[in-house]
């Protein structure tokens, strides 16, 4: 099939629609994408229902351990990607993320740019295909979700109309302009989105999901509209009131904190799960961390840093717990942070197949040259009972409200009361006060390894802190570089300062 006769909306589409100034007669074998015929190079609408289903299926990208997830997690203070012999070397791609030494040619930076922009563009196609009011609302909310991540990571937002050919360079919105467009999409979508309460698998974007995303946007508005991306960030009380308003709307929809923290990540119905991915599997979340000898699919990869682990109170249920000694719970593998000796389903010691010693995870872990047992592992989704991958849940909403109050928003509750209520449900001792440091720590306790830590670090001015193995603390790293191939193909793009 020739690209001058077909418009293909898939991961690979961005090369033609966003990045490439021209194209050749490239033969493509389509497997999962919706292929839309075009007449004479012009856009022809597709079936909006099929396209929307495909757009939802695209959410599976977030379940991967690399690309977009890695930009939000491996660059943070809660995850490290150690090289173990030749394992996880990959030409340094992982180490460069944690050390903040990436550049405009980094493959995960490019892949993330491609996958997010391509998915946003597919939503444009849905909106141009005569959708129903509800379909249009869902497409706008999905476009907002993808566009938010582009704006958050790179500080700009490229945009192309569906009827513009590959010879038209996408226009580029500034970060502040992108913020306004994304908010408009969500506000326009809200009235026609489905009104869905808590469930274990909320796979459609709902009013609650849109309100939670609006709260994220306004909580970070000071970052997104700052004159200088590196700060300072001035949080306006009116914006914080917006955060509180949107968080309260999620509460009013029937969501509440789940009494058993790890139930949120299982197949159990909970009061907390707002939005989950209908595609992909959370299996990579345990594959990427478990030792080869713990699970047949374990990759013996990523760990947390001891400094992060040490911020937890031992009584906090979010720190996790070991499996039962006889293996009757959790397939012999604990939940939360796995440290020290590990055991099999029957309670016998797990033997490291590489060293033939009893497997015991250590606190210390180097970024390169790590032994197979180095580093504290993390399991939130568990192979015994994992549910759908969570895109949004109520624990985050509670903390967004608390932070907004702390930053000057008006509420009948205090930030301390909101945080302590959360901590009581999680089994953690009450705090006597809440300042920025305490709030930052609480976000880490609640949301670790869920993929958004970089965004929180930037907002708190912590992204350029001296974290173990971070060798580049330059202010400009709060934004990623525009991929070099994107710059080469679109003259409207300008590289971010410092790259």
Structure in words:
- This protein is mostly helical and 499 residues long.
- Helix content is 36%, strand content 7%.
- The protein contains 17 helices and 11 strands.
- The strands form 5 sheets. Strands 6-7-10 form a 3-stranded antiparallel β-sheet, with no helix packed on it. The chain has a two-stranded antiparallel ribbon with strand order 1-2.
- Helix 13 packs antiparallel against helix 15.
- The protein is globular.
- The chain starts with 5 loop residues before the first strand and ends in a 10-residue tail after the last helix.
- Residues 1-41 have low confidence and may be disordered.
